[in-house]
């Protein structure tokens, strides 16, 4: 049920915090976030690093769909809508704020059994992931091709680190 609560909170937050008049400029980056999550779910189905658990929902697919369709796109829209344009320090603090938000959300999810870790993944890896994900979202918004190249490097790093080889992929 944690996934349902988070989805409702992202919907409410997006109504209050997203600059909807600019939604179309954020849309490609929201798709990048959703598709990235979808690819993880498909590729790592047989060798997960983290896994969304049903936690009161009918099956494991439901929380994954909520994250892919609601959580990632709307959190991306909220993130981009208020990203500071100037001053590196403000941008850094903004990113750290979102990393902390996601850290708290993930800790709650783990605590209530909505997320489980596998194959060496843990909360510290999630923090590193978020510290890279949020700058990549901003980079994608400004320069999608550069972001895709950097994303490929990060995916290669994670694949090597966690021994995610082709025979472990679905």
Task: Tally the helices.
Answer: 6
Largest sheet: 2 strands, antiparallel
The level of helicity is over 70%
Radius of gyration: 16 Å
Q: What's the mean pLDDT score? A: 94
Keywords: Membrane, Transmembrane, Transmembrane helix
Transmembrane segments: 22-40, 60-80, 92-110, 122-139, 146-166
Structure overview:
The chain has 170 residues and is mainly alpha-helical. The chain has one domain. It is built from 6 helices and 2 strands, in the order H-H-E-H-H-E-H-H. Strands 1-2 form a two-stranded antiparallel ribbon. Helix 2 packs across helix 5 (123-142). The longest helix has 24 residues, at 88-111.
Keywords, separated by commas or semicolons:
6 helices, 170 residues, globular, mainly alpha
